[in-house]
Request: fold
Amino acid sequence: MDMGLWATTCILYPAACSMQPETSNLKSIANYLNSMKTIDIKTDSKVSKILIGEKLQNLAGYLPPGKAMIITDENILKYYGDALPAFPVIVMGQGEKSKTLETLHEIFDMLLKYEADRSTFIIGIGGGIVCDVAGFAASVYMRGLRFGFVSTTLLSQVDASVGGKNGVNFRRYKNMIGAFSQPEFVICDGKMLATLDPVEFRAGFAEVVKAAAISNTSLFEYLENNHEAALEMEDAILEKIVYESVRIKAGIVEKDEKETGERRKLNFGHTFAHTIENLTDMLHGEAVSVGMVFAARLSERLGFLDGKGVIRIEELLRNFRLPVALNLDADKVINAMKKDKKREGDAIHVVMLDRIGHAFTREIEYKQLEELLYDLR
Ligand code: GLY
Reply:
C-alpha cells in the first residue's frame, strides 16, 4: 500500500495493514468504557455531542444512513484498521507538517475520486491534527458536508477535537486557514489512549492543566492530588479529568463560539506556545506547558498572580513530566514573536491569571511584552 506524503486510500476494511491494539497500558480501563457520559455543546448552528467513554466499535450507530468516508492516519490504521466500519479510508500524513493546504488538496482529490457528494458523511479518526484537517475538509467541500470525529489522543479529547475550530497551517502561521464548524459528535474512546506514544499522552495533560488553571480551582486541586494515577491511566480518574476538561471547554464555547471574547481564555499559554512550536520540535502540548509558565510569570510580573500560584502551575506541569522551561536563546523567541507581529498589529491579547482558576485577557503592546520577556530571561 502506498503511504505517500499526504494522503492515499485503503478501500474498504478489514485491510491487510491492520493489527490488534497493544494492551500493555489498558489497566482497568474496561470500567471507563462502561460509563459513557455525554456533554452537549449547544451553539447557534448545531448541538455537538461529546461522547466520553464511548467506543470506536459503536461508531456506526452514530452515522446517518448512506455514504461515508473516513479520514485518518497510518498509526490509527495500524492499530485499529480491523475496527473501522466499511467505508473508503483516506490516510493522511502524521505531525504538524501534514496540516497543510497540500494535504487538503489530496483529500479533495480522494473525495472527488470516490464521488463524495452533499450526502456523504465525513468521519475524522485520530488526534488533533487529523480532526483539524478532516473537519476543515468537510466544512468546505461542496460548501460543507456533515462530519463527526473519533478522538484518539488525550489532547484531542480534552481540547482539539471539541469546540468546532478546524483548519490548517499556512506558511509559518499556525491554524491560519480554517473555519468554525461543529462536529455532530465526538467519540472519546479511552481505550484508544492505551496505544498512544507515552510522550504524546503526557502532552495532553497540558491542555487539562490549562482548563483547570483558567476556570476551575477544584479540578486544579484534583490534578495536584491525582497526577500519578492519571499518568497510570486509572480509569475513573482519567474519565473525570476528560469529562471536567470538556465541560469547561463546552461552557466557554457555548458563550463565545467564534472567539470574540470569552473563548480567548482557552489560549492561555498558546501565544508563546505557537512561537515555541515554530522554533523547536516540541509537541503542541509540551509547547503549551512552557507557554503557560511564561504566561503565569508574566501575570506575576504585572502584579496579578502571586508567586505561589506560579509555583503551583510549574509544579503540576512538572508532575505530569512536562517541560516548564525552554533551552532557547530568549532573543530568538523575541525575534520570532516580532515576526508574528505582521499579523497581529502592534498589540497582542495575552491570557493571564489573577488566581488559579480564573483567567482574563489583556492587550499588551509588543514593545512592552518584549521588555517583560527580556526581564524574565
Ligand atoms: N484550543 C482553543 C480553542 O478551541 O478555542
